[in-house]
Amino acid sequence: MRRVRHETVGAWLLLLAWSLLLPTAALGQAESVEGVVLSESGPAHGVVVHLDMNGDAEAPATEPDTTVIDQYQLRFVPPVVAGRRGLTVDFLNSDEILHNVFSPGWSGGEAFDLGTYPADSSRSHTFSEPGPHVILCHVHPEMVAYVVVVTTPYYDVTDAEGRFVISGVPPGSYRLSVWRRGSDPLDETLVVPVGGVTDLVLDLSEPGRLPREAGR
Asked: Helices (DSSP H) in the chain: which residue ranges?
């Protein structure tokens, strides 16, 4: 007969007692983290906010993401997208001219060139390296976009009003990271309680006050 050590029994009893003391809502519940990102000039659009679990906890496995960046009126639309490692981006060409999509692989990113292709067609690339990847066009050097690859399913890109909503976040301790073009990445610890976090203000103009609650 296999013996069970007293220390193991004690640990299980302690875990059981602790779980009974927790509110029912805390067990297995997913929350949301919502807020706004501000810059020196006001709400910051196209900023990537993501949460990585602290400690040894692992994020749940998810299917690889797929998204689209269009080339329209000599612009990449949207100029910033984010996704988990394995993200596939379809680069459309909606202009009546030739376009090209390439990345020079700066700052450890993936270097690739999808070639030049005509209107109403697309080329795709799958990103495996975490971090920001700059996207350019050989034909139109003024065009630029960014693909930001994260290692967590908890992320969002701010809208025109600087707002973000990260859904399905279990309560716990996280490393909150903020990426914005032309700025150094910012990282802070954020504890997500039962009930989630709302009205979080991430003020990039005052890094020492990141994050803070709205109204303070």
From this structure: 6-21
